[in-house]
Amino acid sequence: MTTVTEQPIDPDTTPRGNGAADRPRTRRREDSAAQEALSVDTVVVEERGRWAVDIVVVFADGIVRKRADTHPTKARAEISARLIRRAAERDIRGPLNG
Fold first, then answer.
1. In a domain, 52, yes or no
2. pLDDT tens, 2-45?
């Protein structure tokens, strides 16, 4: 008979299961010229019989639109767009006054 004890899980020290054992999160370098994004959005468009997901990022000095990926169905493209947008929004700072 084996005894299993429960221990609290610390997401900062727990291995992630994908080979990234105890690695700190990626952070922007202090000397980097990268700008902070103000907002992010994803767009699903039909192109040549496939559905493409574009990511649109708004910076203080302009807008960048890049193709993320393509999918055979609109449903899969919308799922992908939703996941990409949610992941990107995690890194965007919220409003200063609330």
1. yes
2. 565 666 655 555 555 555 556 777 676 777 667 788 889 999 99
Q: Is residue 75 in a domain? A: yes
Sequence-distant (≥ 6) Cβ neighbours of residue 54 within 8 angstroms = 42, 43, 44, 45, 65, 66, 67, 68
Contact at 8 Å (CB) between 46 and 78?
no
SS3 content of the chain, % helix, strand, coil (to 5): 15, 30, 55
Structurally, how many domains does the chain consist of?
1
Where in the sequence is the domain holding 48, given as residue range(s)? Answer: 39-90
Amino acid at 12: D
SS3 sequence, 32-72?
CCCCCCCEEEEEEEEECCEEEEEEEEEECCEEEEEEEEEEC
Asked if 12 and 20 touch (Cβ cutoff 8 Å), the reply is no
Q: pTM of the prediction?
A: 0.61
